Amino acid sequence: MQPVNRHDTKLLPEAFTGLIDWTHRIGIDLRVSPLTLDSAFDSKENHQIIKQHGLLPVIYPNRRNTKEAIAFARKFRWFNKDMDKERYKVERTFGWQGTYRKLALSYDKLKETRLGFRNLAYSMINFRATFNDS
Description:
Blueprint: H1 8-26, E1 34-37, H2 44-52, E2 56-59, H3 69-77, H4 81-97, H5 101-104, H6 111-131
Protein backbone atom coordinates (compact mmCIF):
# COMPACT_ATOMS: atom_id res chain seq x y z
CA MET A 1 0.00 0.00 0.00
CA GLN A 2 1.21 3.46 -0.90
CA PRO A 3 -0.08 6.95 -0.12
CA VAL A 4 -2.81 8.15 -2.46
CA ASN A 5 -0.85 11.22 -3.51
CA ARG A 6 2.00 9.23 -5.13
CA HIS A 7 1.78 9.09 -8.90
CA ASP A 8 1.57 5.70 -10.62
CA THR A 9 4.85 6.29 -12.44
CA LYS A 10 6.73 6.24 -9.12
CA LEU A 11 5.08 2.95 -8.17
CA LEU A 12 5.85 1.12 -11.42
CA PRO A 13 9.31 -0.35 -10.60
CA GLU A 14 8.23 -1.92 -7.30
CA ALA A 15 4.83 -3.08 -8.60
CA PHE A 16 6.32 -4.47 -11.80
CA THR A 17 9.01 -6.41 -9.93
CA GLY A 18 6.30 -7.82 -7.65
CA LEU A 19 4.26 -8.88 -10.68
CA ILE A 20 7.24 -10.65 -12.24
CA ASP A 21 8.07 -12.45 -8.96
CA TRP A 22 4.45 -13.55 -8.55
CA THR A 23 4.17 -14.87 -12.12
CA HIS A 24 7.41 -16.85 -11.68
CA ARG A 25 6.05 -18.42 -8.48
CA ILE A 26 2.85 -19.59 -10.13
CA GLY A 27 4.61 -20.74 -13.31
CA ILE A 28 3.49 -18.14 -15.85
CA ASP A 29 6.08 -17.04 -18.40
CA LEU A 30 5.50 -13.45 -19.52
CA ARG A 31 8.57 -13.17 -21.74
CA VAL A 32 7.88 -11.55 -25.12
CA SER A 33 4.45 -10.39 -23.88
CA PRO A 34 3.60 -6.75 -24.59
CA LEU A 35 3.08 -4.41 -21.64
CA THR A 36 0.96 -1.42 -22.66
CA LEU A 37 1.14 1.82 -20.70
CA ASP A 38 0.12 5.40 -21.38
CA SER A 39 2.44 8.31 -22.11
CA ALA A 40 3.02 9.18 -18.44
CA PHE A 41 5.22 6.07 -18.21
CA ASP A 42 7.39 6.99 -21.21
CA SER A 43 10.91 7.14 -19.79
CA LYS A 44 14.20 5.38 -20.46
CA GLU A 45 14.15 3.84 -16.98
CA ASN A 46 10.71 2.28 -17.47
CA HIS A 47 11.66 0.94 -20.90
CA GLN A 48 14.82 -0.61 -19.41
CA ILE A 49 12.98 -2.22 -16.48
CA ILE A 50 10.41 -3.77 -18.80
CA LYS A 51 13.02 -5.00 -21.31
CA GLN A 52 15.23 -6.46 -18.54
CA HIS A 53 12.39 -8.80 -17.62
CA GLY A 54 11.88 -9.88 -21.24
CA LEU A 55 8.63 -8.04 -21.93
CA LEU A 56 7.93 -5.71 -24.83
CA PRO A 57 7.17 -2.13 -23.74
CA VAL A 58 4.28 -0.56 -25.67
CA ILE A 59 4.30 2.94 -24.19
CA TYR A 60 2.73 5.84 -26.07
CA PRO A 61 5.52 8.38 -26.75
CA ASN A 62 5.45 11.59 -24.70
CA ARG A 63 6.70 14.95 -25.96
CA ARG A 64 7.85 16.06 -22.51
CA ASN A 65 11.54 15.19 -22.95
CA THR A 66 11.71 15.69 -26.70
CA LYS A 67 12.66 19.14 -27.96
CA GLU A 68 12.95 18.32 -31.67
CA ALA A 69 10.02 17.21 -33.79
CA ILE A 70 12.22 14.73 -35.66
CA ALA A 71 13.25 12.99 -32.43
CA PHE A 72 9.60 12.67 -31.45
CA ALA A 73 8.77 11.24 -34.89
CA ARG A 74 11.56 8.67 -34.43
CA LYS A 75 9.88 7.42 -31.27
CA PHE A 76 6.74 6.64 -33.29
CA ARG A 77 8.72 4.59 -35.81
CA TRP A 78 9.01 1.72 -33.33
CA PHE A 79 5.70 2.25 -31.58
CA ASN A 80 3.13 -0.54 -31.96
CA LYS A 81 -0.02 1.41 -32.85
CA ASP A 82 -2.22 -1.70 -33.14
CA MET A 83 -1.39 -2.80 -29.60
CA ASP A 84 -2.11 0.69 -28.29
CA LYS A 85 -5.54 0.61 -29.97
CA GLU A 86 -6.34 -2.50 -27.92
CA ARG A 87 -5.25 -0.70 -24.73
CA TYR A 88 -7.52 2.19 -25.66
CA LYS A 89 -10.52 -0.15 -26.03
CA VAL A 90 -9.97 -1.46 -22.51
CA GLU A 91 -9.56 2.07 -21.12
CA ARG A 92 -12.72 3.19 -22.90
CA THR A 93 -14.69 0.26 -21.48
CA PHE A 94 -13.62 1.10 -17.93
CA GLY A 95 -14.45 4.75 -18.62
CA TRP A 96 -17.95 3.78 -19.69
CA GLN A 97 -18.48 1.98 -16.39
CA GLY A 98 -18.71 5.36 -14.67
CA THR A 99 -21.73 6.19 -16.83
CA TYR A 100 -23.77 3.54 -15.09
CA ARG A 101 -24.29 4.61 -11.48
CA LYS A 102 -25.13 1.08 -10.38
CA LEU A 103 -21.59 0.01 -11.31
CA ALA A 104 -19.85 3.03 -9.81
CA LEU A 105 -21.53 2.65 -6.41
CA SER A 106 -22.23 -0.99 -5.68
CA TYR A 107 -23.85 -1.93 -2.39
CA ASP A 108 -24.87 -5.41 -3.48
CA LYS A 109 -24.13 -8.20 -1.06
CA LEU A 110 -23.88 -10.93 -3.66
CA LYS A 111 -21.00 -10.86 -6.11
CA GLU A 112 -23.28 -12.53 -8.67
CA THR A 113 -25.55 -9.47 -8.62
CA ARG A 114 -22.59 -7.13 -9.24
CA LEU A 115 -21.34 -9.38 -12.03
CA GLY A 116 -24.81 -9.48 -13.59
CA PHE A 117 -25.06 -5.69 -13.65
CA ARG A 118 -21.57 -5.42 -15.13
CA ASN A 119 -22.45 -7.88 -17.87
CA LEU A 120 -25.63 -5.91 -18.59
CA ALA A 121 -23.63 -2.67 -18.78
CA TYR A 122 -21.03 -4.24 -21.08
CA SER A 123 -23.84 -5.49 -23.31
CA MET A 124 -25.29 -1.97 -23.46
CA ILE A 125 -21.85 -0.53 -24.29
CA ASN A 126 -21.39 -3.06 -27.09
CA PHE A 127 -24.93 -2.44 -28.36
CA ARG A 128 -24.27 1.32 -28.54
CA ALA A 129 -20.96 0.80 -30.32
CA THR A 130 -22.49 -1.62 -32.82
CA PHE A 131 -25.82 0.03 -33.63
CA ASN A 132 -25.19 3.74 -33.01
CA ASP A 133 -26.00 5.72 -36.16
CA SER A 134 -24.04 8.86 -35.31
